[in-house]
Write a structure and sequence with these properties.
Blueprint lengths: L3 E4 L1 H8 L3 H16 L13 E6 L2 E8 L2 E9 H4 L3
Parallel strand pairs: 1-4
Antiparallel strand pairs: 2-3, 3-4
Length: about 80
């Protein structure tokens, strides 16, 4: 099934704060997410939000039908804090 994708405003803002090489690594991981979103784990205690690892960072996304919404990118040490 071909997926469509969109980036929410929070993700866009956070991506701009990353160094160029980290931004490139995030872009490559997003390509993998779009190819096979079912490959990635769900966030603990969630049946809708999934995560992908990029070094010390995590990309959070949600799949609804054929739409992948890229929600957030954060450093791992703060990603799971409320």
């Amino acid at each position: 099934m071909p997926y469509e994708f969109e980036f929410n405003a929070r993700f866009k803002d956070q991506l701009k704060t990353l160094a160029n090489e980290r931004q490139e690594a995030v872009r490559k991981k997003i390509e993998q997410i779009i190819e096979m979103p079912s490959h990635f784990e769900f966030v603990h205690r969630s049946d809708k939000v999934q995560k992908a690892r990029v070094g010390k960072y995590r990309i959070f996304f949600r799949v609804t039908g054929n739409l992948i919404e890229i929600l957030d990118v954060r450093k791992r040490d703060v990603a799971y804090k409320n």
